[in-house]
Amino acid sequence: QVQLVESGGGLVQAGGSLRLSCAASGRISSERAMSWFRQAPGKERMFVATIRWSGDVTFYADSVNGRFTISRDSALNTGYLQMNSLKPEDTAVYYCAVTEKWILARRADHVEVWGQGTLVTVSS
Questions:
Q1: What is the pLDDT of residues 54-113, one digit of tens each?
Q2: For residue 92, which phi and psi values (nearest 5 degrees)?
């Protein structure tokens, strides 16, 4: 089973940008999905975005659609989340995750492996 390590979190002003990375320790099969979830203090973990590892399908939560872009580099076994036009309500710990089936990628209870999380703080 692969392990996932996120990086790229930090403090940014509202309207700014950050790019998160998620490095996998091994190969991810094309039918699997890499997703990003986030968890704000006192709230449940929520789906943000997902990409089928083949690269042909992406899906976003309404709250980030048009501002965030998910991508991957299969040669590097690394996924990315480009976050633009950040808002204070985007403040959370961001987790990357791998799910066996793309169709279940938005469900936290079907995640096979989680990263350790990276904190994103957006100041107003």
A1: 988 999 999 999 999 999 999 999 999 999 999 999 999 999 999 998 899 999 999 999
A2: 180, 170
Residue 50, pLDDT score: 98
Nearest residue to 18 via CA among 113, 98, 94: 94
d(CA 103, CA 124): 36
Give the DSSP H or E segment for 25.
none
Average pLDDT, the chain: 96
Contacts by 54-58, CB closer than 8 A, 24 or more apart = 54/30, 57/102
Beta carbons of 115 and 91 less than 8 angstroms apart: no
Q: How far apart are CA 116 and CA 41, in angstroms?
A: 16
Q: How far is CA 61 from CA 5, 29, 36, 112, in A?
A: 22, 24, 10, 20
Strand partners, 42: none
The pLDDT of residue 93 is 98
Handedness of CA 123, 58, 102, 76 (dihedral sign): negative
